[in-house]
Design goal:
Layout lengths: L6 H5 L14 H14 L6 E4 L3 H10 L7 E3 L15 H8 L14 H16 L6 E4 L2 H12 L31
Parallel strand pairs: 1-2, 1-3
Length: 180
């Protein structure tokens, strides 16, 4: 699941710093409450979020019906763009010369980020299975979608759109995990 809408989404700003004041706005809280209602009868065994507060805020709303410990995993954090607090368009302009490999302002490239997220998916395969809710970011969930659905070339990762509080259910098994 992607986190609910935030103040930075409204301003179209990048964020990968967990200390920045990025939080769910009223719309984001309502999105999370709607998702919580839809997921209330699903038995969840674990909830895992990124270190960025917006994922925890979303998970806390979902968790009202599940009462689980919310775990944090750094590998599912948003891409470290090197443009924290700056316009997303500025970031895209800075990496336009090589969108897959460009690293700017000590950030990570799209392929660096993909590798990090794939390491999380590999870690997840080693965990006790059950219904695990992962609350993360659009960039992170693009990797999930390409990994589980397949047939998404790296050049087309950014073509995948995942709305705030959209979620997809995947079954984790060796047969349905595409190789990076």
């Amino acid at each position: 699941m992607r986190h609910g809408r935030t103040n930075y989404n409204d301003l179209d700003l990048c964020n990968d710093d967990p200390t920045a004041d990025v939080h769910l706005n009223e719309m984001g809280k309502k999105q999370a409450e709607t998702a919580a209602e839809k997921l209330r009868d699903l038995k969840l065994d674990r909830i895992i979020v990124s270190p960025l507060p917006r994922t925890r805020q979303t998970a806390e709303i979902i968790n009202r019906y599940h009462q689980l410990e919310i775990e944090t995993h750094p590998a599912i954090s948003d891409i470290r763009s090197g443009f924290d607090g700056r316009a997303v368009d500025e970031y895209f302009a800075a990496i336009a010369y090589d969108p897959l490999n460009a690293r700017v302002n000590s950030g990570e490239s799209l392929l660096d980020h993909k590798k990090r997220v794939l390491s999380f998916i590999n870690w997840l395969k080693q965990q006790p299975q059950g219904n695990i809710l992962v609350v993360a970011h659009e960039e992170t969930l693009r990797v999930f979608k390409s990994c589980f659905d397949g047939d998404v070339e790296n050049e087309h990762l950014r073509d995948i759109h995942i709305g705030n509080c959209d979620y997809t259910r995947y079954t984790l098994s060796p047969e349905n995990i595409n190789k990076p």
